[in-house]
Each structure stands twice: as structure tokens, then as C-alpha cells.
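ok, trying the design again with the full structure, not the truncated one.
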């Protein structure tokens, strides 16, 4: 096993959420949760699949944050992993 450290620099005024899931619809589910509970938030998210062509699914409303999430997951090289970057996400309503 080769263990490597990966530096992740979080953009200014953002919060980072790294997660793991086993469901291909995770990206769409996370998008729906964020968009409906934090409508003012700018966010990007990416999810790495583990089957077939192992795609990176992306969602969000800020292309720069989406691209940053994609770069993080590419650097981590892990499947079934999600990355969310949130900006202007407070207060959270539920």
C-alpha cells in the first residue's frame, strides 16, 4: 500500500465537506439538499463513481467551486467519495 499526503487548500470564505457514499445518485441528492435548505449559498460538489467508466459527477451553482471540487477528487484518487465547497451558506434553514 502506498500512502500519500494530499494538500487541499480551501478557498477563502468557504467550508469544505468531504464524504463517502455507496449510491450513484449521491451528487443529485446532495445538490437537492443544499439548494433547498441553503438557497443563498454558492456551492460546488463532485462525486467519484466506482463502477463502469468511474465518472466524476458534478453539481452546483458556482463553476469555480465545482472545478475546485473536481481537482480535489482527482488528487485524492478515491472512488465513492464526495466533495462539497460551500460559500455564503449561513444561516442554514431547515
Amino acid at each position: 500500500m502506498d500512502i500519500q499526503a494530499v494538500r487541499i487548500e480551501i478557498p477563502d470564505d468557504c467550508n469544505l465537506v468531504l464524504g463517502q457514499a455507496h449510491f450513484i445518485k449521491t451528487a443529485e441528492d446532495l445538490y437537492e439538499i443544499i439548494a433547498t435548505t441553503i438557497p443563498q449559498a454558492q456551492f460546488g460538489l463532485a462525486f467519484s463513481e466506482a463502477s463502469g467508466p468511474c465518472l466524476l459527477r458534478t453539481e452546483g451553482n458556482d463553476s469555480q467551486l465545482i472545478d475546485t471540487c473536481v481537482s480535489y477528487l482527482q488528487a485524492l484518487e478515491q472512488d465513492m467519495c464526495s466533495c462539497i465547497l460551500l460559500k455564503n451558506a449561513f444561516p442554514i434553514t431547515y
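Keeping the full-length input from now on. The helical segments are 26-37, 63-76.
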